[in-house]
Amino acid sequence: MSTSGTTDSSQTPTQAVRSFTDLQVELLDFFDNRPGGGAVAAPQNLIVTHVTNEYLTNLDLSAPPAPRQLEQELLASCYGIIANENLKIPKNDGTYPIPRHLSTWQVARILLRLHHVVRIAPTGANTDREYDMLAMYIGHGPSRGIYTASEDDLRTTARLYNTQLTTADFKEVVAVLREDAPRVHLNSHRDLIAANNGIVNYGTEPLDITLGGKRFHFEPKKVHPFDPAIVFTVKSAIDYVENAPMVRIPHPDPADGDWEVGEWIHDLFYTEGDEEFNQRNAGLAALTWEVLGALVRPHVSWNKTAWFHSEQGNNGKGTLCSLGRNLLGSGAHTSIPIRDFGKEFALEPLIKSSAIIVDENPVGIFVEEAGNYKTVITNDTLQINRKHRVPIAFEFHGFMIQCVNDLPKFKDKSESLYRRQLILPFTKSFTGAEKRYIKDDFLKRREVLEHVLWYVINCAGAVSPGSYYELSEPPATQALLAEYKDTNDPVRAFWTEFRELFVWDLLPFFFLYDLYRVWFTRVSPSGRLVGRQQFITDLFGIVQNDPLWHCNDKAHTIRPGSKMAVSEPLIAEYELKDWYTPGYTGTDPNRLGIPLLKPNYRGLLRTVPLGTAAPAAPVSSDD
Fold first, then answer.
1. CB-CB neighbours of 447 under 10 Å
2. Domains of the chain (ranges plus CATH)?
3. Where are the beta strands (DSSP E) in 301-380?
4. Pair type for strands 392-395 and 381-384
5. Which of 175, 252, 331, 472 is the most exposed place for a label (fewest CB within 10 A)?
6. Which among 169, 166, 234 has a CA at the least distance from the CA of 196?
7. Hey, what long-range contacts does 19-28 have (CB within 8 A, 24 or more apart)?
8. Segment 443-471, tens digit of pLDDT
9. Which GO terms describe its molecular function (predicted)?
10. What average pLDDT does range 6-12 have in this prediction?
C-alpha cells in the first residue's frame, strides 16, 4: 500500500549499498578475472565506464556523498584500477595516464544519477528528440520540487564535480545528457497543483495514479511531498495551508474600517444603491475568483484568455494583476503583450512560467499573425526559438491575463479566435479614492496570499465551488464579446446592422459587397476596406450560425425567381447605382430598387422567405 503522495515501496525495493572498500575489491576482481583478458590491460574506456557506473549504482541515493567527496572517491576508484591495469602493459608500450579530474562523460553520468536530468518532450506530440527540453530536478531550496531548464543551473551543478570545467567541456556534458537522459513529459493531470510546499490534489475524491513508473496516492484538497517522477517546471510561491483563515487588516485611516480580500474583489464590481450597475456586473466577482484559480491550475485546458478591459484608469485591474503575480511568485509568470507573440524570441520565457500576466497593451494595435497566440491559449505544441541555443518544441500549460484599454484588432476574424476570448469589463473608477497600500502592502502579505490560495482551491467556482473546470461567462462578458466581434470585424458589424433590413429573399454577393463598400465609407472613412473575395469569404463564415440566412456553398448559383421580384429599398438609400432600375430617372425609392436581374446569382438565401409562416419547432419524441 502506497503512502500519501509517496512511492510504493513494494515496487522499488531498496538495494544494499556496499562499503567503498568492498566496492574497490569487487572492481579489482572484475578486471583481474574479466572474460577474455584478465592478464591483458583492459581498454581505458572500459575502465572509466565500468568503474563510474559501478560507483554510481552503489550510492545510497537517500544520502549521497557531498560533491567533493564523490569526486575524490570516484577518482580514487579509477586511479586504483588504472594503476593495477598499467602493471599488465609491457614496459615499452606506455601506460594509461592517471586522471586528475572527472571527465565530461563522468560529470554527465553523475548529473543523470544524482540530479535527475531529463529530456522533457511535448505530451502526445510526435516531435523530434532534438527539440526536447533538457531539465534538472531541484531537490532543495526555494525551488524544491520542480525541474529547471536553466543552463546556468545545470552548469553550476556540473562544476560542483569539476571546477575546471570549461565552456567547451560543458557543451560536451550537455551532448552526453541529450543522448542519455530519459525522455519524460510534463505533468498533465489537471488536478495536481504545485504549491510552494508540495503537490495539492484539487479533486474532491482520492486519486491513485502511476506517474513516471511510480504509484502515488493523493488525498483530496491535501498537500503531498514532491517527487522527481512528477515533472513540474513551475510552482506557486505560496504554501498551501488547509483552512487558511480569512484575514482582516485595519485600513491606515480608522474611518475606513477593515479590509478583506474577498470584500475588495466584490467591491470592484458592486456599487451600493446602484441596482442597474450591480445587475449589469452580476457574476463578475465570482469569475474573478475563477480566473485567480486558473492561474494556479495550469494543467486544466481552459482554452480561454482573460482580457481585463477598461477605457479609464484606476479601476482595479492592475491591482488584480499584482495579486495574481504575488500568488504565483516572481519566477512563475511572464509578461508577453498580445502583439509580441509573433516575435522570434519573445516566447522563450514561457519555458519557466505557468502564467502570462500583462498590465498594459498599447492602444490601437493590429495583430497580423495570431497563430502563436492561439496555440499558447489552447496548450498546443509550438516551436520556441531561443537566442544562441537549440530551439525546443514546447507546450505551454498556463493561463493568460491581458489588460487592454481598447480592444485589439486581429487580422484573424475566425470563431476559433473569438471563442478563446473572455473579456471582463472594469467599469468602476477609483480616481481620487485610490488606496495604494492595498497593492503595495496588503496583497503581498503571506497570510493574505495563503488564504487566497486556499480559497481558489476550495471555494472558487460560480456553479460548482471547489470543483470547476470551465470559466463562467456572465452576461457582461457575453455582451462585450459580441461588441468586440463587431469592432474587430467590419464585415460582421455590417452584417449585424443589415441582416434584418433586407426585403429580398436572395442576396447576391456582389450586391452585398457594393452595399458594404458604401456603408463602410460612411462609418469609417479612414478605415481599410477588405477586397470583394475576402468579404465573401468572411461573410460566408459569419452566416454559418445565422438563423435568418444561410449559404451551404458560396460557389453555388441560384435562380432569383420571385426572391428578388420586389424593390429593395436599401438600393436607393445607399445610392447603389449599378442596381438601379434601368431607364428610370426619377427619385422614388420604391421604383429605383428594381434592377434588371441576371439568370443566376451566388449569394445568401433567407431561411424562411418573408410573408411565409415560420416552420413549427420539431416535437420531441419524449413529449
1. 13
2. 8-100 (no CATH), 249-480 (3.40.50.300), 489-606 (no CATH)
3. 305-309, 333-334, 355-358, 366-367
4. antiparallel
5. 252
6. 234
7. 20/73, 23/54, 23/55, 23/58, 23/77, 24/77, 24/80, 26/54, 27/51, 27/54, 27/77, 27/80, 27/81, 28/80, 28/81, 28/84
8. 999 999 999 999 999 999 999 999 999 99
9. ATP binding
10. 36
C-alpha cell at 214: 511510480
Quote the cell numbers at residue 41.
590491460
| pLDDT score recorded for residue 391 | 86
Q: What does residue 334 show for φ and ψ, rounded to 5 degrees?
A: -140, 170
User: CA torsion, points 483, 488, 490, 491, in degrees to nearest 10?
Assistant: -90
Beta bridge partners of 309: 404, 425
Those residues whose C-beta lies under 8 Å from the C-beta of residue 246, and which sit 6 or more positions away, are 260, 261, 262, 451
Place of cell 522570434: 344
pTM: 0.83
Residue 432's pLDDT band, with cuts at 50, 70 and 90, is: confident
Angle (CA) 385 230 325, round 5° = 60
Amino acid in the structure at residue 165: L
pLDDT tens figures, 226-252: 999 999 999 999 999 999 999 999 999
Encoded amino acid at 69, one letter: Q
Question: 217: which strand partners?
Answer: 4, 208
Q: How far apart are CA 126 and CA 132, in angstroms?
A: 11
Say which amino acid occupies 1.
Answer: M
Q: Which stretch of DSSP H or E encloses residue 485?
A: helix 475-488
Given a contact cutoff of 8 angstroms between Cβ atoms, the answer to whether 320 and 288 are in contact is yes
Cα separations (Å) of 409 from 134, 340, 363, 372, 568? 37, 14, 10, 16, 33
Do the Cβ atoms of 602 and 533 come closer than 8 Å? no
Beta bridge partners of 133: 120
Asked if the model's pLDDT at residue 620 lies above 50, the reply is: no
pLDDT band at 37 (very low <50, low <70, confident <90, very high): low
C-alpha cell at 247: 484575514
